[in-house]
What we know:
313 residues; alpha/beta; Nucleotidyltransferase, domain 5; 6-stranded mixed β-sheet; 11 strands; globular
Amino acid sequence: MECASCQGSTIKWGKDRNGHQRHRCKSCGVTVTDTPPNPIAPLRLGMDRATLVLQLLVEGMSIRSTERVTGHHRDTITRLLVLAGRKCEALLAELVQGVEVEDVEADELWCYVGMKEKTKARRKVRDPQLGDAYTFVGMERNSKLVLAWELGRRTIQHTDAFVEKLDRATAGRFQLTTDGMSAYPDAIGYHLGTRTDYAVLIKEYGSDASEERRYSPPSIIGVSKTPVHGNPNPDRICTSIIERQNLTVRMQMRRFTRLTNGFSKKWENLRAALALHFAHYNLCRIHSSIRVTPAMKAGITSSVWGGPELLSA
């Protein structure tokens, strides 16, 4: 190892209290410590503690519950969440590209930031990062891999951004099923073109005027399957897998739990939590039906990842 001051040769000079090797220059006597790079800098958390915090968050605990369990301040936990979320979003964008797929389902998952849209309208709040928030999710039916996601609203712009990500994540011809949102056909036709067999599945619900209807969905009275373009297989026109994924999100993210005060207060924090969840789901969590992680099933990785690998990648 060369001395950074005089470019002279150095010798080992013990270790510091953290076990890092120290070096001393033979010429000028300067002592330096060989400190490994810290993937969560500038946070003053060890990798073990950071991994524990993130593990609690992806298992459905709130920020304040994690604070009580770990003893770390909620601001530190939030900063770690945002840092990890940015890393995970970039990591998934790099890993999930050009994946060969056969059957893809897409759906939107509702939550809100700060307040619901009707409350925002009543209070005449004009902040664009408050109110209803929809998470677009695209999943491969066989490997259970989350191919793309987008946080936004049910608008043409955010639908277009989601389908563009789905186009970048997939390769080859495949069948695609969505719900009946009107923005999907144009966006899918523009970005995915003729390499999809696209169909729409719309569920019809009965009317229920009872008080129990307030917190429970009405019963399904019919399902209509409509081919849009290509030649979709009627037996594979389905959104059940992606709707089951919506349950997984709500079970493992406190921000999506209904009728609680654990909802997101900032758009940035919700985006980071989603990025962390989908990266953990794809790379770290063994799916019970396929016995491996979705990334392993899709051939993206060869082993189960852990928290340190997720933060260091």
